[in-house]
Each structure stands twice: as structure tokens, then as C-alpha cells.
């Protein structure tokens, strides 16, 4: 299979490149770079690659991409896929878009949460929300890879929401991310002096993943009215922990909850249910896994679900490869790491 990749100078694009190089079904990776006018050694484009790296980067050209490849990955900043998508949509060429541009169904919602103009509703109608561990068997050629926080949160909530086990208005998510989630551009909050040995709550009630989480929850269970969602930056390279609090409906006990999670994820190769043994971030870093643990307080009726992922893998490049595997009817786990870096 021949792969086109745009965005190798970013964190997610580089992670994708590393995964694709080890994918058993990938025969060629063509890198396209927006600011090149001629073929250029890849190590000159991304200085994280050493000078022995022989691959070349090519100038961006949509027609050439479609002529020479089977699928395109867009690992580009918010707003760029909106500008690049049209020729691929016109020709039904498969695209896996890691940005948030095509995840929402209404242009006004994108404008409100991303503060920029996104795709038209006609174009949005062609995209598919690729939450790979749960949404499958679709026909669309444009796959919107979910956001990192959204992935951890939705995988943690799905069994509760789908089986209607919780009060619909009781969802509170307190999520924390490492710095790679913010991409390569430096900001005041990601400056070493501010981030190191610190924890910062940010985008309170304004995080751009709120609408995509809510849309998916409501697709599963229309009674969910809203959710309370908070994000914090913690001084680690990679990883997300979503601590999800929900109030369980009367008559539902620990065994019912565990059963719902087991039923949901019995055939999901990347989801590990730890039940009452709560997961930590290092248990998934380096893998495409999502580890989920539960703590039910029978006195208060509140359930804590802890969902952890590696934001660069399950939260970005790993899930994107999983979406490619599903689209081309390959094994779900092909080319994807199932074991974390550390134990
Ligand atoms: N990091 C993460 O954990 C996650 C990221 N995402 C999303 O994935 C996307 C990539 O993320 P990340 O790698 O972290 O971001 P980075 O900021 O690290 O990289 C952004 C990439 O977009 C490229 N780019 C910018 N402008 C253009 C343009 N006009 N045409 C083509 N390419 C362009 C940049 O190229 P150059 O620098 O050469 O201009 C760079 O390669 C983002 O939309 C992000 O929100 C999603 C889930 C998780
Ligand atoms: C730590 C950190 O800053 N994380 C980013 C997540 C980036 C992301 O996934 O954004 P998209 O929705 O555009 O894909 C954030 O909170 O905005």
C-alpha cells in the first residue's frame, strides 16, 4: 500500500511516519511538504531525522498525491484540512485527517469552538467520526480522527451511556495531558519554567473537544443533555488520564457496571479493563491501548472511571493507523504497538 503523509514536521506526523515505516502492509511512504518547490532530502525538512535518512520530501500537489498513493494522512494544524480537502472529496479519495476540522457536523459549531472558519456542511456530510474501537463498518472515504481527550473520555463513558446506567446530566470529566498534546509550537503555558513541576488548568469550559464528545454521547444516548469537562496540563511528555465521575442510577451495582464494560469491550484488542485496579499513564505510553479502571462508591452512588491513553498513539497517530487498517480491511492491530514502553 502506498501512503501519502502531510505534516511530518509536527509531532503527530512524525509519530505516524514511525508507525508507517513498521507497518507490514505499507510498501511506500510519500511525504508532501507545503513549503517546498522541489524534491528535498527529508532530514533537511525534519531535523529530528539523521543525515543518513535517505527518504525525500516532495512539494505538495493534490493531483500527484491521488495519482501515486492509496490514502492520504493529514497531520496538520487546525484549519489546514479545511483548505486542502476539496480535490480529495471531489474524487472520493481516502483521507484520514488528524485535525479537528471534519469532526463536527455543523460549521457554526466549528467556528464557535475553534474560532476559525471550517468546512461547509456539504463537505462535513462526507466525513465520518473515526472512533476506531467503537465506530466501524462505514462507507465514507473522509475519516475524521477523534481528538485525544475525546478518545480517552468516550472510551471511558461508552458502556455507561450506551447501557443507560447513569443519570444523563451527571457526567464530570477531569482530564490531564502531557505536553506533546499541544503540538510543537511553544506557548506561555508550555514554556519549561511554567510547565515543569507544575499543573495548569486551561480552556475551562471552552475546550474544543467538548462538542465532539457531546455529539458522540448524544448519538449513543439522546438523553445526555451536556457534560462538565475540564483539562489540565501536567509535566510529562506524553499521555492522558481522564478521570470521569458519573452518578449511577438506583438499583445498579458494581457487578452490573463491570458487566457492561466487559460486554462492550470483549472483542476490542486495544482496550484493557482493569476493573478496580486503577490505571496509570505509564501503563499505556508507547502502546495504542486504552486502559480503563473503575471505583464505585456505594455510599454516594458516584462512579469514578479512569481512562488512560498515549495521546500520540491512541489519541492521534495510532488511532489513525487503526482507521486505515479498518478502511482497507486489514487486521485491526497491524503495525500498532500493543505493549507500553515501561512497566
Ligand atoms: N499532538 C497530539 O497529541 C494530537 C494532535 N492532534 C491534531 O493533529 C494535528 C497535528 O498535531 P501536532 O502534530 O501535534 O501539531 P504540530 O503543531 O506539532 O504540527 C502541525 C503540522 O501542520 C503543518 N502545517 C501547518 N500549516 C500548514 C499548511 N498550510 N499546509 C500544510 N501543512 C501545514 C506543520 O508544518 P510546518 O511546521 O512545516 O508549517 C506541521 O507539520 C493538529 O490538528 C492537532 O490538533 C490530534 C490529536 C492529538
Ligand atoms: C495539551 C494540549 O494542549 N492539548 C491540546 C489537544 C490538541 C488536540 O487534540 O486538538 P484538536 O482538537 O485540534 O485535534 C489542547 O488541549 O488543545
From TrEMBL:
Residue ranges occupied by any Semialdehyde dehydrogenase NAD-binding domain in the UniProt entry: 2-142
Places the protein is found: Cytoplasm
Catalytic residues (positions): 148
One Pfam family of this chain: Semialdhyde_dhC_1
Example of a GO biological process term: L-arginine biosynthetic process
One GO molecular-function entry: N-acetyl-gamma-glutamyl-phosphate reductase activity
Transmembrane feature ranges: none
InterPro entries referenced in this protein's UniProt entry, alphabetically: AGPR (IPR050085), AGPR_AS (IPR023013), AGPR_dimerisation_dom (IPR058924), AGPR_type-1 (IPR000706), NAD(P)-bd_dom_sf (IPR036291), Semialdehyde_DH_NAD-bd (IPR000534)
E.C. designation(s): 1.2.1.38
Main location class: cytoplasm
PROSITE patterns cross-referenced by the UniProt entry: ARGC
Catalysed reaction equations from the record: N-acetyl-L-glutamate 5-semialdehyde + phosphate + NADP(+) = N-acetyl-L-glutamyl 5-phosphate + NADPH + H(+)
A GO CC annotation given for this chain: cytoplasm
Pathway: Amino-acid biosynthesis; L-arginine biosynthesis; N(2)-acetyl-L-ornithine from L-glutamate: step 3/4
Record keywords, A-Z: Amino-acid biosynthesis, Arginine biosynthesis, Cytoplasm, NADP, Oxidoreductase
Record's function text: Catalyzes the NADPH-dependent reduction of N-acetyl-5-glutamyl phosphate to yield N-acetyl-L-glutamate 5-semialdehyde.
HAMAP family tied to this protein: ArgC_type1 (MF_00150)
Family: Belongs to the NAGSA dehydrogenase family. Type 1 subfamily.
Name of the molecule in the record: N-acetyl-gamma-glutamyl-phosphate reductase
Amino acid at each position: 500500500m502506498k501512503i501519502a503523509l502531510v505534516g511530518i514536521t509536527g509531532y503527530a506526523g512524525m509519530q505516524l511516519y514511525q508507525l508507517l515505516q513498521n507497518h507490514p502492509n505499507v510498501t511506500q511512504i510519500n511525504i508532501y511538504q507545503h513549503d517546498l518547490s522541489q524534491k528535498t532530502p527529508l532530514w533537511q525538512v525534519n531535523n529530528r531525522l539523521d543525515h543518513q535518512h535517505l527518504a525525500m520530501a516532495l512539494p505538495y500537489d493534490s493531483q500527484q498525491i491521488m495519482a501515486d498513493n492509496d490514502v492520504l494522512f493529514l497531520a496538520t494544524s487546525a484549519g489546514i484540512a479545511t483548505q486542502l480537502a476539496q480535490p480529495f472529496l471531489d474524487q472520493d479519495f481516502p483521507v484520514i485527517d488528524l485535525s479537528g476540522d471534519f469532526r463536527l457536523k455543523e460549521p457554526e459549531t466549528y467556528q464557535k469552538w475553534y474560532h476559525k472558519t471550517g468546512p461547509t456542511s456539504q463537505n462535513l456530510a462526507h466525513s465520518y467520526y473515526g472512533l476506531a474501537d467503537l465506530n466501524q463498518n462505514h462507507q465514507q472515504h473522509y475519516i475524521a480522527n477523534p481528538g485525544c481527550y475525546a478518545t480517552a473520555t468516550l472510551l471511558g463513558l461508552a458502556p455507561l451511556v450506551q447501557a443507560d446506567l447513569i443519570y444523563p446530566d451527571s457526567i464530570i470529566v477531569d482530564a490531564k495531558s502531557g505536553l506533546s498534546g499541544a503540538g510543537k509550537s511553544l506557548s506561555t503555558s508550555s514554556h519549561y519554567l511554567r510547565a515543569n513541576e507544575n499543573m495548569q488548568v486551561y480552556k475551562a469550559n471552552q475546550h474544543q473537544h467538548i462538542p465532539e464528545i457531546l455529539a458522540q454521547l448524544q448519538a449513543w444516548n439522546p438523553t445526555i443533555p451536556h457534560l462538565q469537562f475540564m483539562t489540565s496540563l501536567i509535566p510529562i511528555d506524553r499521555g492522558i488520564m481522564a478521570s470521569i465521575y458519573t452518578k449511577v442510577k438506583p438499583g445498579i451495582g458494581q457487578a452490573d457496571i463491570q458487566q457492561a464494560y466487559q460486554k462492550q469491550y470483549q472483542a476490542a484488542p486495544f482496550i484493557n479493563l482493569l476493573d478496580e485496579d486503577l490505571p496509570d499513564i505509564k501503563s499505556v505510553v508507547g502502546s495504542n491501548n486504552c486502559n480503563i479502571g473503575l471505583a464505585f462508591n456505594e455510599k454516594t452512588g458516584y462512579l469514578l472511571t479512569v481512562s488512560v491513553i498515549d495521546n500520540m498513539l491512541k489519541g492521534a497517530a495510532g488511532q489513525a493507523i487503526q482507521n486505515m487498517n479498518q478502511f482497507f480491511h486489514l487486521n485491526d492491530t497491524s503495525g500498532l504497538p500493543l505493549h507500553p514502553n515501561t512497566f
